[in-house]
Amino acid sequence: MKAAFLLVAMFGSGKVVASATTSAPAVAMGDMVSMLLSLFAVVILIVAMAMLMKRLNPNLGNSENFKVIRSMPLGNRERLLVVEIDNKQHLLGVTANSINYLYQLEQPLPEHAMPPLAQNFSKLLQRAHNKNE
Q1: Cα separation of 65 and 111, whole Å?
Q2: Is residue 85 within 8 Å of 65, Cβ to Cβ?
Q3: What does the CA dihedral 10, 16, 19, 23 come to, rounded to 10 degrees?
Q4: Which residue did the predictor score with more confidence, 83 or 53?
Q5: Domain map of the chain by residue range?
Q6: In three state form, how does the secondary structure of the chain look?
Q7: Are strands 79-85 and 66-73 parallel, antiparallel or unpaired?
Q8: What are 88-128's pLDDT values in tens digits?
Q9: Do 71 and 58 touch, CB atoms closer than 8 A?
Q10: Residue 8's pLDDT is what?
Q11: Residue that wins the pLDDT comparison between 25 and 123
Q12: In what order do the strands lie in the sheet with 99-104?
């Protein structure tokens, strides 16, 4: 009789424990999936915004005396820049560690027009800046 009671107690308690442990991970798994999907969406949004800003290149650093006319990436951290200073265009080589003067252009390159989306964004930023002043 004792052996039967022990067998029932062992198998019975095992089923209770098994059912209790399967419901808890199911809830935790749903939360985990939701969290991972949210994280994935945020990462995708950040990457998309970075690519959009890189593609639009609104030239926010331009001023009256100094303009970046063209920029061409050569590698991850290297690029060629055509800058205009005092109505003369100069070719610069830019790396992560240095900036080298390469050449003064004899015939100036035409300035790239900003894409329409970048122009609209620039106008929106100017309006917001003027409202804050």
Answers
A1: 14
A2: yes
A3: -140
A4: 83
A5: 1-56, 66-110+117-132
A6: CHHHHHHHHHHHHHHHHHHHHHHHHHHHHHHHHHHHHHHHHHHHHHHHHHHHHHHHCCCCCCCCCEEEEEEEECCCCCEEEEEEECCEEEEEEECCCCEEEEEECCCCCCCCCCCHHHHHHHHHHHHHHHHHC
A7: antiparallel
A8: 899 999 999 999 999 998 888 876 666 677 767 777 777 87
A9: no
A10: 52
A11: 123
A12: 66-73, 79-85, 88-94, 99-104
Q: Which of 88, 98, 99, 91 is nearest to 65 (CA)?
A: 88
Tokens standing for residue 125: 């930023």
Query: Which residue's entry shows tokens 């999936």?
Result: 33
In angstroms, what CA-CA distances link 96 with 32, 54, 73, 76, 109? 40, 18, 12, 9, 25
- Does the pTM surpass 0.70? The reply is no
